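Need tokens for this chain, all 316 residues.
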Amino acid sequence: MDFAKVAAKRLGAVVVLLLTLSVLTYALLALAPGGPEEALLGDRASTPETRAAIRALYHLDEPFPVRYWEWLTGALSGDFGSSIYFRQPVLSVIGDRLPVTTTLAGFAILLTLAVGIPAGLAAGLRRSGVLDQGITFSTLVALAFPPFGIALVLLYTFGVALQWVPIYGSDQISNYVLPATALAMGQTAIVIRQTRAAALDVGGQDYVTFAKARGLPRLRIWGSYSLRNAALPVLTVAGLLAAGNLTGAVFVEQAFSLPGLGSLLIQAVNQKDIPLVQALVLLGGAVVIAVNLLVDLAYMVVDPRVRHGASTRAEA
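Here are the structure tokens for all 316 residues:
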């Protein structure tokens, strides 16, 4: 099996996954009680003719297979339709919100890795010591609080009481300090624990023991021998967290009133805005798939054994 066949197989799996995701999402929205016309009209009085006209305008009176096929053929050509609620092209609505979520997600993952990896390595190097116990206890505390609760505490303490940072807005980098911190705290604890476990596992390997017996400095042992081997599980966790930041920062965006994709998804679901929900769900699925692919590529860069194994399978 050569690389072309492997790539084709993976591409086929991606297509099937996204297609299944789109069918399930469209079906669940279609089967849910209520409809977009009720969300658009709200509490205003309306006649059956008015509701029928709205349904006809957005082709909601057509059978489910027909509606889905029309949406699918348009999506394959790059046209995801128009938002029922915003009355704008779906891609335009998402494009307006995307920079907010990407900035928040990027800031949060940088904080997570900048704090989590050094702290996890420090705890692993000093197993059962005071530093290790303190870091481990801190991770338990961070994991015990949900991001939404952390967001409220940070919002009141640093935004309201101390007034160190702004509590609303999305046009300055300072607006993302508290949201990114709230999002990163629990994730940092996960990275710390994963890095610590990987460091402990690598620290017990024979080549590390031999390097210590040769009298090599600890910094060189961990920098040249151990860090790359301990990086593989950390890369996996970091990739999952990065994808989660882009697709699941709903509660943090809600707490800080950030107009990102998370708050947009909640609004779209409440309004039964089927084209917008479809595009957001597919975007989330594509992000998860892309991040997993990047993690696989990073494996080959970090660990030569993975690269050699992939080449051997391709030649077989």
